[in-house]
Every structure is written in structure tokens, then in C-alpha cells.
Amino acid sequence: MTTTEVLVVGAGPTGLSLAVDLARRGVRALVVERSAGLFPGSRGKGVQPRTLEVFDDLGVVGAILAAGGAPPVGMVWRGGERQGEYRMFDEQEPTDAAPYTGPVLVPQWRTQEILYARLTELGGSVAFGTEVTGIAQDADGVTAHLAGGGTVRAAYAVAADGGRSAVRRALGIGMTGETVDPQPMLVADIRIADDALDRDNWHMFPPAGAHPSEGAAGSGDFAAICPLPGIPDFQLVARFTGGAEPDLSPGGVREAVAARTHLTAADVTEVRWASDFRPRAALADAFRAGRVFLAGDAAHVHSPAGGQGLNTSVQDAYNLGWKLGAVLRHGADAGLLDTYEEERRANAARMLDLSTRIHRGTGRRGAATRQLGLGYRESSLSLDTSTTTSDTAPRAGDRAPDAPLGGTRGGRLFDAFRGPHFTLLAVATDTELPYLNPDLVHVHRMAECAPYGTGLHLIRPDGYIAWSGQDEPGLRKYLTSTKLEVLSSGT
């Protein structure tokens, strides 16, 4: 029997992000992956600004930005003629509060390579070719049974094994959802002859009478061909109507391109990876069963429209990682783990609705898809006792904005937040503070800091404001009521 503190099932973006977060907290985690290696395709290629902030904290944003690029402007084609540009994303300038504007296009396989490299740098690893076939739990832990006959014993387990999650099925947790589009779709990584299609645009081939702004909701076959940054590949997405089914063979992929575009089959010089799917939106009926948690596609399945699936999944991991670390490393009450489902299921439901509306052409990509406005104001971990009357000041439960740190040290708030700790900002106040464990809470006194106004602001390890108020008694009361009093243990 292998023993660990956290068993992570699945080495996709969700499982790897969680494993990285746990590793930097000193939590022993074992990642098992049924496949022999990392996922080979580009599928989840859009990394949104909020996820870039997560990757900044996890220490991989530099590699992600180096590997990625801005989405090219769309170009609509009909009959082999350019019809004009189509902008799918609102242009957004970086600000002090939001330095990443995104989205950034990075093939999913590359994102996973970067996360895997970071995990190994932190001393973690992945057991490839290892399949979980059954799971049982008791009051003290979880026992996972492996296809090879071995077992893994852990305090907690996280199912990050995708939309067809074997762990979710073993737990008996259902998925409630709907078919977003009954027509099957093909996604493939292809290479195209240099003189056949340029790499300056995201090429759109809508069916007759349709426009890309309608999403994939119109009738008829369509195709979109997007150049992937830093590599010679393009990502092909094609829909099949009239009862046709995608043929995933190289010949079938070439035929799909020739049938929907002005390119010939011979213009597709290589088919590197291909998969099919039917767009669906589904939400797990629960994100937790005892000591086992669902995260990523195991908990919510999105249409790819709007690029929300991978991003919502990474943020599941980011939310759960600090809570597992607090319980396993710092003696926080295990009830803290209840807030994972409370916070993440509601957010996943909102993003599922957005993805579905974008797919059907009734919603659009914009501020909501960047995910900077998502938060946890209704969470039991969020308490705001501040006296500000500003409508724009962030509140408890909101994402904590970036800003210049000020003072002689310089730097930025994101520099102060980076790491597995809480951060207490004491802005334009000399109020007395309670004892706070310096290993768990980093304190920064600041003369002023827009947009925070004045007072005390406790920032969670995942970059959300936990509590805002004016004085020491309020902070102490918050730490006690949320059972986070471990942060102020000591004298």
C-alpha cells in the first residue's frame, strides 16, 4: 500500500495546478494518471486573465506568457474570399488593478507541460499509467484501488479525472445538465501548407446565411481554423450536421477541412491529434462526498465556447489547495473544507450558463469571460465590516486587486500576495493588530492604497478578500467565527 496525504486522480490542468499548490505548502500529494503521458492536444487553449493571476502566484506565468500569444483577429471567409474581420474579444488595456488583460492562447498540452515542470521542480511527480478502479473511505481516510492490484491510502482524495470521471461514478454522484448542441464536433491539431492559409488571423468559415457572432448555434456545417502561437500547428474545430459523424482518421480530418473551406485536402500536410465531442453543459450534483472532492471537468462540463472550462477548473484547484493545506499543515478546523463546494459550485454554475449562452449566440465574450469579476461575497468565509461608502471599493469576497505597494520597498501587491500565506493590509491606519502567526499571515502597513481605501483587509491565499474592517476586535472576531483562529495562535 502506498500512503500519501492527498491523492489527486488526473494529471490535467486541474490536477497539476492542485499538486503544484499543495507541493509549495509542504503537503505530500500523489498524482495518478491513467494515460501513459500528458494530454497531447490543444483543446483548452484560452487562458483567461484571472487564471494568469493564479499562474503568477504558482510561479508559472512567465513560461505561460512566453509560450502563448494574443488571440488573432477573426477573418470571415465565403467562397474562398475574405469577407472582413471579426473581433471575438474586447480589447482591454492593463491597469494597476488588473495587469493581465488576456486571454492568452496556449495549447493545452503546453500548459500542462509547464505545470508538470513546476511540479517536478517542487519535488512532486506523476504516476503515469496508473488507473483508479475503485474508492472507499472511512472516518480517517480514503483507500483507492488501482488497476494493477495495488492500493493508495490518503487523508483526502480529489477527482480531477475529467468529464467521464471514474471516481465520480464510483461515488455515485450524478451530473445534471443539458445538450448544448446536438450536432457532433471535431477538434484537431493540423499543419497547413505555407501558401494555403496565413497565420495572421483566426479563420472562420460559417455556413451560408450565418455569422460568427451567432456562435455555433446556426444550422449547417462550419469550421474555424486558429493558428497556435509559437508552433506551426493550427487548431481546427468543425461541426457535423445531417446525421454525419466525425471521422478522426487523417483522411477524415482532411475531408472535413476540404468540405467546409476553400482549402483542399492536400493543403493539410499533417494531422497531429484529433478528437470528437458533443457540446454539453453539466454540473455535478455535489462537489464533495466525505473525504473525496470533485474538481475540474469531473465537477462541471462546459461547451468550449468562451474558453471557460480549463479556467474554471484551475480555479477549483486554487480554491481547494489552500484549504487542504490549512487543515493538513496548520491545524485549521476540517469544517473549512465545507466551503469548497459552497464557493465553487455556485461559480461553476454561473460559468456554465455563460458558456452555453455564448455557444448559442445569446451571450458574448467580454468582461465576464475574463473571470476577474467572479467572487465569493455570499460565502460564509466573507465578512465585510468596513465603513466605506464607495460603490467601487472591493468588498469581502471580491478578488483582491493589484496596486503599487508603495513605501521604500516598492513593488506591487501581487508581489506581496505571492505565496501560500494570507496577507493583511493595514491601509492608512495605525490601529493595533492582534498577534498573527508571521509564517501564515504577512502584514503590510501602507500609508494609502487605491482602490482599498482605509482600514484592514485580510487577503486569502487564493487572492480574495476574506474580511474588511477597521479594528483589531473585528479581525479577531472574524478569525474566531470562521474557525481560522489558527492564524492568530501564539502570544
From TrEMBL:
InterPro entries: FAD-bd (IPR002938), FAD/NAD-bd_sf (IPR036188), RIFMO-like (IPR050641). Keywords: FAD, Flavoprotein, Monooxygenase, Oxidoreductase. One of its GO terms (molecular function) is oxidoreductase activity, acting on paired donors, with incorporation or reduction of molecular oxygen, NAD(P)H as one donor, and incorporation of one atom of oxygen. The keyword Oxidoreductase applies. Residues 4-354 form the FAD-binding domain. Residues 381-395 have a biased composition (Low complexity). Residues 381-407 are annotated as: Disordered. PANTHER family: BINDING MONOOXYGENASE, PUTATIVE (JCVI)-RELATED (PTHR43004:SF19), TRK SYSTEM POTASSIUM UPTAKE PROTEIN (PTHR43004). This is Pentachlorophenol monooxygenase. It comes from Streptomyces alboflavus. The lineage of its organism: Bacteria, Bacillati, Actinomycetota, Actinomycetes, Kitasatosporales.
